[in-house]
């Protein structure tokens, strides 16, 4: 683990790795997202019960899933930062937070738009919705704690501890649907996987959803990588290697 | 230097903190008075009918308890941080987690114990059905240590900030929402003469989790703040 992580404690190495990884996330992400959205929003068949309004699932489900996924990613970065004292992990933590917060907001927003025609209300205090709202608050708390410190290093460390404490919330979100199980429908994809003989979602709908899922991941990971590289350059702006890159325009 | 046993040290820490607190009584009495005033506001705002009050009583009591706890939390580490005693606490010849546990216990004694004592009064003011009173006391007994333990994490993170008050609530209240949910669920069940064992068991689980894990997080947070 240490041998694998160690080189990336050096900001320059992380920067170069990011430069290499970026196209592998950005382009497939953009293409998959474009394909998935057109497929889902235009060509996928309408639902026999919900009509066309179910189509928002192609945005709602990926954003909700990655909102949680990125929080876990943030907590992992925080763990690496605390255990091995690696500065680039602290920057990664703060690069992930706003992207995850926006994903959480998108999932809540699209959920409200979906809920209005289906449940007859914009918002309901269902367990899953509430947990997602708490997740948004956790993201905001991490970001607010980070900016409250004058010393950014201290701020990132404190925010990291908070992120790790908040990760307890992730299983609560996941199991809340089983604990309370009120209005929100069960998870579509896991039902598909666990009941292969009688899937609840037809393949014409599932495929665009999966394509969108990876499209969201690619685009958001690319955003995080770009944010992280910006942060590295900003912190290392006086170092020769950073000056060379900035002057060379690459 | 003679080695002091951990329990003796813990006792000393608790005694010292209690003595310091008792010399500035208003610090820990104010949150309780705040709680009483907030509870008084609700009947004035929603109307004095006993039915309405009994229905909202579980939520009102617990929300007020959470908010008043936010007021008193800051003093857990703030004064010690300012006069440097906190650094000495981190250097004590005993696990830091133990000292943190001492701080949590003192905070619980100073804020939750008075709350427990006046809880029958709160139930009376909000016309909570009498059969729910024992459950109220049990939820407070199980929930307030969680409040102190999780609160310690937030205070440890924000203690070096000048204006940490509002931030503290933003950090802590989302983490305490599950506590609120299960406490009010237990109280509501008791109001309708149903068994409250399920939510109470969840609260007991939170208690074990919070007391076991939060000292670790507090230790890490204090080391970041003091450094």
TrEMBL record, chain A:
MF term (GO), any: heme transmembrane transporter activity
Residue span, Cytochrome c assembly protein domain: 30-184
Transmembrane spans: 21-44, 64-84, 91-114, 129-149, 161-180, 205-225
One GO term (biological process): cytochrome complex assembly
Localization per record: Cell inner membrane; Membrane
Entry keyword Transmembrane: yes
Membrane topology: Multi-pass membrane protein
Major localization class: membrane
Name recorded for this polypeptide: Heme exporter protein C
Organism (species): Aliidiomarina soli
TrEMBL record, chain B:
Function: Required for the export of heme to the periplasm for the biogenesis of c-type cytochromes.
Entry's family note: Belongs to the CcmB/CycW/HelB family.
Primary location class: membrane
Designated name of the protein: Heme exporter protein B
PANTHER family: CYTOCHROME C BIOGENESIS B-RELATED, HEME EXPORTER PROTEIN B
The keyword Cell inner membrane is annotated on this UniProt entry: yes
Annotated keywords: Cell inner membrane, Cell membrane, Cytochrome c-type biogenesis, Membrane, Transmembrane, Transmembrane helix, Transport
TM segment ranges: 28-46, 52-73, 105-126, 132-159, 166-187, 199-222
Topological relation to the membrane, as annotated: Multi-pass membrane protein
The keyword S-adenosyl-L-methionine is annotated on this UniProt entry: no
Subcellular localization(s) per the UniProt record: Cell inner membrane
Highest taxon of source: Bacteria
Pfam short name (any one): CcmB
């Amino acid at each position: 683990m240490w041998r694998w992580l160690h080189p990336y404690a050096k900001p320059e190495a992380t920067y170069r790795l990011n430069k290499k990884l970026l196209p592998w996330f950005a382009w497939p992400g953009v293409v998959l997202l474009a394909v998935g959205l057109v497929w889902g929003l235009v060509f996928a068949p309408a639902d026999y019960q919900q009509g066309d309004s179910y189509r928002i699932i192609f945005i709602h489900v990926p954003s909700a899933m990655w909102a949680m996924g990125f929080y876990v990613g943030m907590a992992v970065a925080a763990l690496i930062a605390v255990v091995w004292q690696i500065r680039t992990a602290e920057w990664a933590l703060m690069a992930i937070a706003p992207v995850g917060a926006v994903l959480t907001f998108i999932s809540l927003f699209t959920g409200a738009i979906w809920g209005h025609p289906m449940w007859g209300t914009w918002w309901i205090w269902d367990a899953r919705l509430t947990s997602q709202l708490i997740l948004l608050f956790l993201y905001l708390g991490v970001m607010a704690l980070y900016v409250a410190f004058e010393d950014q290093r201290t701020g990132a460390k404190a925010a990291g501890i908070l992120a790790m404490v908040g990760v307890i919330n992730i299983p609560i979100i996941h199991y809340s649907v089983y604990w309370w199980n009120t209005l929100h429908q069960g998870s579509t994809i896991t039902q598909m996987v666990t009941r292969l003989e009688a899937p609840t979602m037809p393949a014409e709908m599932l495929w665009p959803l999966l394509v969108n899922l990876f499209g969201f991941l690619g685009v958001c990971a690319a955003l995080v990588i770009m944010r992280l590289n910006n942060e590295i350059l900003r912190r290392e702006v006086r170092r020769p290697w950073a000056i060379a890159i900035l002057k060379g325009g690459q | 230097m003679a080695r002091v046993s951990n329990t003796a040290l813990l006792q000393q820490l608790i005694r010292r903190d209690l003595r310091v607190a008792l010399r500035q009584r208003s610090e820990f009495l104010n949150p309780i008075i705040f709680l009483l005033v907030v509870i008084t506001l609700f009947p004035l705002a929603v109307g004095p009918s006993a039915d309405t009050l009994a229905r909202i009583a579980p939520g009102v009591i617990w929300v007020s308890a959470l908010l008043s706890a936010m007021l008193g939390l800051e003093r857990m580490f703030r004064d010690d941080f300012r006069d440097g005693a906190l650094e000495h606490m981190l250097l004590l010849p005993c696990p830091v987690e133990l000292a943190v546990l001492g701080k949590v216990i003192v905070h619980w004694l100073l804020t939750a114990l008075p709350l427990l004592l006046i809880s029958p009064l709160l139930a009376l003011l909000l016309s909570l059905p009498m059969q729910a009173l024992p459950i109220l006391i049990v939820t407070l007994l199980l929930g307030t240590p969680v409040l102190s333990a999780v609160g310690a994490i937030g205070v440890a993170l924000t203690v070096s900030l000048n204006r940490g008050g509002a931030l503290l609530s933003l950090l802590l209240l989302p983490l305490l929402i599950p506590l609120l949910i299960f406490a009010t669920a237990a109280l509501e069940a008791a109001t309708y003469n149903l068994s409250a064992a399920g939510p109470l068991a969840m609260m007991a689980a939170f208690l074990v989790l919070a007391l076991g894990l939060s000292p670790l997080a507090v230790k890490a947070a204090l080391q970041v703040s003091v450094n």
